[in-house]
Amino acid sequence: METLEHIISEHSFFSGLESYYTNLLTGCASNVRFEKGTYIFKEGEEANEFYLIRAGKVALEIFAPQRKPIMLATVGEGEVLGWSWLLPPYQWKVHAHAIETVRAIALDGKCLRTKCEENHDLGYEMLKRFARIMEQRLEATLLQLLDVYAAGK
Amino acid sequence: MTMATAATTDFMLPQPYLVQQVVKETADTFTLTLEPSDGTGRNRFQPGQFSMLWVFGVGELPISISGNPADRAQLVYTVRSVGKATHALVSREVGETVGVRGPFGTGWPVEKAEGRDVLVIAGGIGLAPLRPVIYEVLHNREKYGRLVILYGARSPRDLLYRKELTAWARQPETQVLVTVDYGGLSWRGHVGVVTTLFKNARLQPARTLAFACGPEIMMRFVARDLENQGFAPENIYLSMERNMKCAVGFCGHCQYGPHFICKDGPIFPYDRMRPLLEKYEL
Amino acid sequence: MTLQQLERLVPALHSRGYQVIGPIVRDGAIAYDVVESLSDLPVGWTDEQEAGRYRLRRRKNDNNDDEALFGYVVGPQSWKKYLHPPEVRLVTAERSGRTFRILNNEPAPPQRAFLGVRACELAAIAAQDRVLQGDRYRDPVYAARREGIFIVAVNCTQAAPTCFCTSMATGPRVRGAYDLALTELVGPGRHEFVIEAGSDAGAEVLAELAPASASSVASEALCQEAEGAVERAASQIRRRLDTTGIRDLLYANFDHPRWDNVAQRCLTCANCTMVCPTCFCTTVEDVSDVTGTHAERWRKWDSCFSQNFSYIHGGSVRSSAKSRYRQWMTHKLASWIDQFGSSGCVGCGRCITWCPVGIDITEEVRAIRESPASAKENNHGNS
């Protein structure tokens, strides 16, 4: 049976992280499972965790009046779901919808925030890794905004 | 007029082809199957090449060939109706005639991919010029390594060749990943631009040749990402698009820096395109 | 050779089946058209040219009271009018039922002789040869008109202020493929021509004009005088275009502020591309009759200055005037070298003369050369 610490240290998101930190993270981690069709979190709810997706697919969705619901992106195996836990007001901006049954490691954001405040080296590592995800998300959004397939061949 | 002179003007004169079949792919995109009206099956082409399709009295358009290169009897084109001439083209009925010149331009260097993995990256209707590559690889499966197809479209309704995508995914050593920019809530696939598929594609950059076709800005981001993943720029090929009138380098319209897209391209290695792609209004 | 002897030239060409095209005066300018005799030429005329200015004038007004046949420089037209026509029908087709057939019924163009081809124009023909029949495709329209052309070249003995052939190494002395080359010598009480043959066909015609005899062979002194007249034209040339490393200079200055500056003056009227003897771009227009049974495709000169030139679905690639001027000049002087192994500019100065606002390509190059953009600006992307 794989230990939580092993799963965390093997996850690409935490690759290269010193074992001291993976050990710290494991203290805030737990195994979770979301059935297909359920919501992992909803817009406006308090954001107190993030997820390392081990299997399944999560759709990020947003709703607006008089418009069809929009699926912004999908997050799947090997990826990280959620960064709203990291910055105030610690509130989700979108819905996370398990469109397949999802197995994941949940990391307790409250617990982690405290540890990051106490240990800025850990905090810096976390910010660096999440900043990368935000940057990728921003680029993807940029391309969506350009609506690239609308013109050209 | 002597035979020799007639032969040299062949590329200037549209040859009549009969419309054999018209298939609606999406709301505005259609696939036309043409065969020579004199019944001869002599349609050799390289995957990635294009023809000039002429609608009598309306106009002529450069359209990539999207059929199977092994099938010499027919020429297949997938056309998006976006203007007067394309609309006239997709409105042809079975039995009507379309003028064909070509094929023109350079093809995807599939021979260079023999013994290697093939990565096909398409955006929107950019899958059409790449479909002959997919046919070629699947038809000569033993000559090539893994085939990875990454395909992005605006929405699920804009996906081309849906049945074929499913069938390709079942082929040995073949991975097909599809993504859309805007998924409706009934869409259970991937959402995000085509570059977000890279993390799910099992790629070995050192032994893979990448062929990308789609809107220029998409190819810019794709090529940049592939390079970051360890692809050598000369192993990434892009299909470029510019205005074309003649297809043989006479009309000047398709110039892109020093290149004529029609005769030097449309397929170019990324190392030759990289200095130009970021130049605005080149 | 005397004028009387030269007068046999046009009949000699006619007798060999050539339609003779030469300079004439039309609409206040030197044009090229069919000539029946030397008297159709602009006898006693000269031209005044400056940036944005062109005027014909009688030569006697400036103390050259002579009857020179070639006493002017170049007009707005060039020989591409005949070799690469402004409008040509590419295809004629007729519908029958649900199909159509192509009628391959274009009459063969006449066999032509060009009379009065200047050195820069000879270079321009060579440049278009490379574009339209030098690669794997040969333009059949061009090739049919170009093949068997008889060229009577003329050495320039005077230059316009807009000329810069010496910078482009194309003139004023004719070089390359001609059948006959003549130098006109005029002065008080004299009108002579020194003619040399550049081909067997030329030698044959020359022999007919002046049967070989001691009197018809130009003396050493006369040849030197002719050479001197051409050198005088060269020395009159004031405009300079420094071509040193010009390809890399223009490539490196894609974002130079000078392009914005010229764009404020450029009207994107396309005059420069129409008068340029090497500009070759074309578009194709479809026409059909009302019944829809007859269709034609016409190829027409086009210009990279037009908004539609670079249109692909969604819009034009080059929508700003800046980008279109930059494309024209960069193509002419830089990318042409990559494409065809030579410059696309022959230094004839037509684009300077016929620009309604007097934009001068030599001045634009100088402005960029004298203040190259910094390396940082060069590397700055526009995405």
CATH-defined superfamily of the largest domain in chain B: Nucleotide-binding domain of ferredoxin-NADP reductase (FNR) module
Topology order of chain A in helix (H) and strand (E) letters: HHEEEEEEEEHH
CATH class term of chain A: Mainly Beta
The CATH architecture of chain A = Sandwich
Protein model, in words:
The complex is a heterotrimer of chains A (153), B (282) and C (383). With 153 residues, chain A is α+β, with helices and mostly antiparallel strands. Chain A has one domain (4-146): Jelly Rolls. Chain A is 34% helix and 27% strand. In chain A, strand 4 and strand 5 form a beta hairpin. In chain A, helix 1 (4-10) crosses helix 2 (19-26). The longest helix of chain A has 27 residues, at 120-146. Chain B has 282 residues and is an alpha/beta fold. Chain B folds into two domains: 3-104, Translation factors (Elongation Factor Tu (Ef-tu), domain 3, Beta Barrel), CATH 2.40.30.10; 110-277, Rossmann fold, CATH 3.40.50.80. Chain B has seven helices and 15 strands. Chain B has helices at residues 3-9, 84-90, 131-139, 162-169, 216-228, 261-264, 270-277, and strands at residues 15-24, 29-36, 50-55, 59-64, 75-80, 97-104, 117-123, 147-153, 174-180, 190-191, 208-213, 236-239, 255-256, 259-260, 267-269. The longest helix of chain B is centred in the last third of the chain and has 13 residues, at 216-228. Chain C is globular, with a radius of gyration of 23 Å. Chain C has helices at residues 3-6, 9-15, 80-83, 119-133, 140-146, 165-168, 200-209, 220-236, 246-252, 258-265, 271-275, 321-340, 350-353, 361-370, 375-379; strands at 19-26, 29-34, 45-50, 53-58, 87-96, 99-103, 112-117, 150-154, 180-187, 190-197, 282-288, 294-301, 311-312, 315-316. In chain C, strands 2-1-7-8-9-10 form a six-stranded mixed beta sheet. In chain C, strands 6-5-12-11 form a four-stranded antiparallel beta sheet, with no helix packed on it. In chain C, a hairpin with a 2-residue loop joins strand 3 (45-50) and strand 4 (53-58). Classes of the chains: A alpha+beta (153), B alpha/beta (282), C alpha+beta (383). The interface between B and C is large, with 47 and 55 residues.
